[in-house]
Amino acid sequence: MPICWLICCATDGHRWAPLSPQSDSIRALRALVRARDDLVANRVALGNQLLSTLELWPGAACIFADITSPIALAFLLRYPSPAAATRLNATRLQRFCRLQHYSGRRSAAELLARLHAAAPSLTGPQASEALAQVVASLVHVLQPLIVQISELTRRIEHFVESAARRADHHVLPTRRPYLCCANPGRARRCARTFLHGRAARRRSRCRPRYLSVR
């Protein structure tokens, strides 16, 4: 043990705050955030696996920007192989997007042009059937996973928003009271900031200093 540390303990030990176990709020928040991080890692791994599988059908991988978005997964579930999309045209794609409440800025004709502009699929009947089975299996795993990630995200935002409103210094420690988070809108922004890292935290008007959750 360093001698300087012993000297500090002897001379300034009374100035140190006593160590205390983590509060129940911190333990709950850590559990929620860790579970969400693990599910996000699984979503990324499954999304990469899905992209690798779609090398046999490149058009389905580029028709929508995010392969793990709800609209992209719904498309793959409806058209899991090139054979299933042989009769797909702009009218049917527009009807599909309307049923899925697609809010993107791309029209059905533009999306269809993306699908046709990609490299053609060279799968035969057996490979196409196997591709459809694998794609459908991955989509069935990804869809509930994404739903649970959204549920955990809302739970964490609600947890941090509630802590900001009641100025819970166990969850949101700061030298000053959380007067800036008394406004519900700012409290919600603080909750979102908690999930989006240091870059978003620097852009936040509240600039809260949160405890690390890892």
Explain what you see.
There is one protein chain. The chain is mostly helical and 214 residues long. It starts with a helix and ends in an 11-residue tail after the last helix. It is 63% helix and 0% strand. The protein has one domain (22-203). Mean pLDDT is 78; it is low at 174-182 and 198-214. It has helices at residues 3-12, 24-53, 58-62, 70-78, 90-99, 108-117, 125-165, 184-195, 197-203. α2 runs antiparallel to α7 (125-165) and α5 crosses α6 (108-117).
Structural class: mainly alpha
Tally of individual domains: 1
Strand content: under 5%
β-strand number: 0
The number of helical runs is 9
The largest pleated sheet is described as:
none
* Poorly predicted regions: 174-182, 198-214
Query: How far is it from the N-terminal to the C-terminal residue, by CA?
Result: 28 Å
Average residue pLDDT: 78
Taken in chain order, the helices and strands follow as: HHHHHHHHH
Q: What does the radius of gyration come to?
A: 25 Å
**Overall 3D form:** elongated
Question: Which labels suit this protein?
Answer:
214 residues, mainly alpha, 9 helices, elongated, disordered C terminus
Please outline the helices and strands.
Layout: H1 3-12, H2 24-53, H3 58-62, H4 70-78, H5 90-99, H6 108-117, H7 125-165, H8 184-195, H9 197-203
Helix pairs in contact: 2-7, 4-7, 5-6, 7-8, 8-9
Summed up, what is this model?
It is built from nine helices and no strands. By secondary structure, it is mainly α. It has one domain.
